[in-house]
What we know:
By secondary structure, the protein is α+β, with helices and mostly antiparallel strands. It has one domain (about 30-175): Jelly Rolls. The protein contains two helices and ten strands; from the N terminus they run H-E-E-E-E-E-E-E-E-E-E-H. A five-stranded antiparallel β-sheet has the order 1-4-9-6-7, with no helix packed on it. Strands 2-3-10-5-8 form a five-stranded antiparallel β-sheet, with no helix packed on it. The longest helix has 25 residues, at about 1-25. The two termini are about 10 Å apart. Residues about 15-25 and about 180-185 have low confidence and may be disordered.
Amino acid sequence: MRKLSLLGATSTVLVCLLWTGIANAVSVNHISNGTFDDDLSFWDTGGTLGVTWVEGEASVGQPGTLGSSFLGQSFGPVTAPELLVEFDYQWQSSAPTIPDTFTVKLIDAASDYIDVLVQDSDESGLVFNSSYAFSQIVSLAGLNTADPLTIQFHLKERNASGGTRIRLDNVAVSPFPGASPVPLPAAAWLFGSALVVFLTGSRRRCRNG
């Protein structure tokens, strides 16, 4: 009975580890510090207006000042054929006289645009000071994904008074489900299957005895 109890406990632990491995493989996030918990570490910033950290979010731009600002991060290599890009964003301040433009791009190592994910101005019907959740699948077909990719957020401000800024949070770039970049070794599956079969047979022999 002790042997069976030990086997049962071992099989339970193994199953948990296998499922944990599956979950981790599917939910890989290529972005570091995408939630901006404490600062803007791992992110590149630039432009004339700058990017600041405010209460666990990235604040892109400075209302009432002409110029531009960007926030970006490179990642890779990527083994999945498709990526799921997600982030939360919010237009802040108030609608200016001349529309400002917020652009989000996925860029390859040759500085070519893979996809322009967002190209909104404040005339697009979005409600100021309300959060929006962005989610889009991007195909990497035909690209050399062994080279780094970059996601870049860019705000162009055209107003000397008034104007906007963008608040960003929860940035994630992950393999599209079903294209896991970290497959579990076949040996782990074989060992788990053999253990379950052995355990089942042992229990049957114990009952028959």
